[in-house]
Amino acid sequence: MTFPLPPNATIGIVGGGQLGRMSAIAAARLGYQCHVLTPEENSPAAQVSCSVTLGDYGNRAVLRAFAGRVDVITFEFENVSADGLELLAGLRPVRPAPAVLRISQDRIAEKTFLNRAGVATAPWLPVRSFGDLVYAAEKLGLPGILKTTRLGYDGRGQVLVRTEAELVVAYEELFPKPLILEGLVDFAQEISVIIARGAAGVMVAFDPVQNRHREGILDLTLAPAPVPDWVAEQANAIAHRVAAALELVGLLAVEMFVDRDGRVLANEIAPRPHNSGHWTIDACPASQFELHIRAVAGLPLPHAPRHSDAVMKNLIGPEETALWPEILATPGLIPHLYGKTEARPGRKMGHVTRVFPRGALPGSFGIADALGPLADQQI
Ligand code: AMP
């Protein structure tokens, strides 16, 4: 297959979740077909794709069958094995490359990579034994956060350690998984930047956004982030630096902290569309999903600055999903539902966007008002 991918070519998406669903919708608009690999029947992504390979990510025969049905492969899900992606990469172009996934899957590899690329992070040390933890706590100081190096998401696999006495409990909770201890950042806000990079090195980034979490799960994204230009510029520069150092072909989200002095520290990278970029569907001429597909397909990557400011609110679990009828009846709320059949607590079921004229993003009270039936869900 040659790039740019011609219309009607098939893009293989590893993972069947909402990120794959919204990527497939963007791909369809660009004239591509999508084929999804997932073990899940009736997955959000497969519901809007042409076809699906149902099977396990770790099964080599399944991976081969999937590769045989597609022209290029991308992923929407980071907890797929990098070895599986390597196998796929021997059969079809995989974008982003498996090496990029490998870095983002492991906090030690990720933070080592970031620091070597000259990007500041919270201070951190690896923890392979209780002795390591005591040493790390002494070196970094407490409070800190003990985190598993792999498979952590939405705040899972991490424990806040306030005092020396809490070290044992935290360790017992997470050991024997490989761990790191990170110094706690007293952040003023959490922000993220989403950037696309093409094979020839062209990069386009969306403006930094502010992310507000509830119980470790993203609740609200405000676009743009309420930060001065010099802070936004640091965030932007970090995203460009990381995407270039990774030699990324695809899309990347960089989650960051802004500390009390306005210094920006990178926290995590995700080489895929990201929840904090969902607002781009409704507020930009080309969304993060379109830029993802464009980068994977080798299409041009036009600058796509937002035409509107936006607030995105996730619909999480049964309580917020129950507000769907009221959401649909509220003028100005742009609804998105992911087609998941079971609304378990903490599960991302959909999201709602509200757009405002550029430069007119209201403060917190205005945002609460603008979210109508979701206003009470804690802003
Ligand atoms: P993570 O899984 O690393 O994205 O962490 C999930 C959330 O925990 C982040 O969005 C922050 O709210 C918080 N967090 C993680 N690491 C730190 C840190 N070093 N200092 C302060 N807060 C943190």
Write structural notes for this entry:
The strands form three sheets. Strands 9, 10, 11, 12, 13, 14, 15, 16 and 17 form a nine-stranded antiparallel sheet that branches. This protein has a four-stranded parallel sheet with strand order 3-2-1-4, sandwiched between helices. With 379 residues, it is an alpha+beta fold. The protein has helices spanning 18-29, 60-67, 82-89, 98-105, 107-116, 130-140, 166-174, 229-245, 280-283, 288-297, 317-321, 324-328, 364-370, and strands at 10-14, 33-38, 51-54, 72-75, 124-127, 144-148, 158-161, 179-183, 187-197, 203-205, 209-214, 217-223, 250-259, 264-270, 308-316, 334-337, 348-357. Helices cover 30% and strands 27% of the residues. It is built from 13 helices and 17 strands. The protein has three domains: 10-94, Rossmann fold (3-Layer(aba) Sandwich); 123-183, 2-Layer Sandwich (Dna Ligase, domain 1), CATH 3.30.1490; 187-374, ATP-grasp fold, B domain (D-amino Acid Aminotransferase, Chain A, domain 1), CATH 3.30.470.20. Strand 13 (250-259) and strand 14 (264-270) form a beta hairpin. The model has no long low-confidence stretch (mean pLDDT 95). The structure holds adenosine monophosphate. Adenosine monophosphate is lined by residues 122, 145, 152, 155, 182, 184-185, 187, 190, 213, 216, 255, 267-268. Residues 122, 145, 152, 155, 182, 184-185, 187, 190, 213, 216, 255, 267-268 line the site of adenosine monophosphate (AMP).
Number of domains: 3
Strand content: 25-35%
Spell out the CATH superfamily of the largest domain: ATP-grasp fold, B domain
The helix count comes to 13
